Amino acid sequence: MNKIDEKNIPLVEVFEDFLTEKNIQLHVLREDLIHPEISGNKWRKLKYNCIEATEKGYSQLLTFGGAYSNHIAATAAVGKAFGFNTIGIIRGEETLPLNNTLQIAAKNGMKFKYVSRQFYRTEKYRDTFLQELENEFGKYYLVPEGGSNAFAVKGCTEIINNIITDFDVITCANGTGGTIAGIIASLDSSKEVIGFPALKGGGFLKNEIQRLLNEYAIKFEKKNQHNNWSLNTDYHFGGYGKINNELIAFVNDFKQKHHIPLDLIYTGKMLFGIYHIAKTTDYFNGKRIVVVHTGGLQGNKGFVERLGIELK
């Protein structure tokens, strides 16, 4: 298992003619390089959950996710690295052979339990089901879907520690809201935070992010006065896991030009959005932007498997 390195994260400047013309400085914080299997925000969100589980005497982590979930793969890898048994409650029916994501998780020792999509949507956190899981698997520490809770927020407050330049705007892609909540909580109101939800209709995350900020403030006795953030819901490409040829071409072109791989679900969509906004509006003119690369690159293999697309 490779060493987790959360302190030596490169901050890479991206150069484009249109950025220079509009006096925009764009840097990418390469959180994806923390670890090949526990990359980016996945480690940030699991770190303090693992510490809490250890302090409370748990030897098992149980969590939830879809069959292509970065969080599922990362939780399994964390379990192997730090001596936890891991259990994944997977949305949908079992399909064999396992896809690349679940193969990674299984290789790292995770046990799976599959539940229907309807049950997953409505019942997964019900006390009766959680008790059934304890009866089946034994005592476990519950990590929520996507890893997002107060401990995740605490971990994500540390993302800014590797930003070695001043900036005006920081952006990240959003799934469950924990990462952006941590970034918001770590900054004062002089910095603007923009989230790019990967889900269609992602505006609902605003309430979830506020809930996470409140939970973090109460648990860790922090102030909760944040009005410097917003969500841009225009670049989901049809919804979570939805892609098209334009996005694929952008991700391939970006890697070829800047030697930075992007994932198709989160960071690729966000950077596409930033480029589009910068090219077609004056919103970012004269600003210094930091883009947080949250990893999730293993998910690209799922698109190659299912759709036969070509990624460079």
Could you characterize what this model shows?
- Helices cover 41% and strands 16% of the residues.
- By secondary structure, it is an alpha/beta fold.
- The protein has two domains: 186 residues, Rossmann fold (3-Layer(aba) Sandwich); 107 residues, Rossmann fold (3-Layer(aba) Sandwich), CATH 3.40.50.1100.
- The chain has a six-stranded mixed beta sheet with strand order 1-2-10-7-8-9, sandwiched between helices.
- Helix 4 links the parallel strand 4 and strand 5.
- The mean pLDDT is 94.
Q: Stretches where pLDDT falls below 50 for ≥5 residues? A: none
* Average of the residue pLDDT scores: 94
Give the C-level CATH assignment of the largest domain: Alpha Beta
Tally of strands = 10
Key descriptive features of the protein:
4-stranded parallel beta sheet, globular, 6-stranded mixed beta sheet, 312 residues, 10 strands, 12 helices, alpha/beta, 2 domains, Rossmann fold
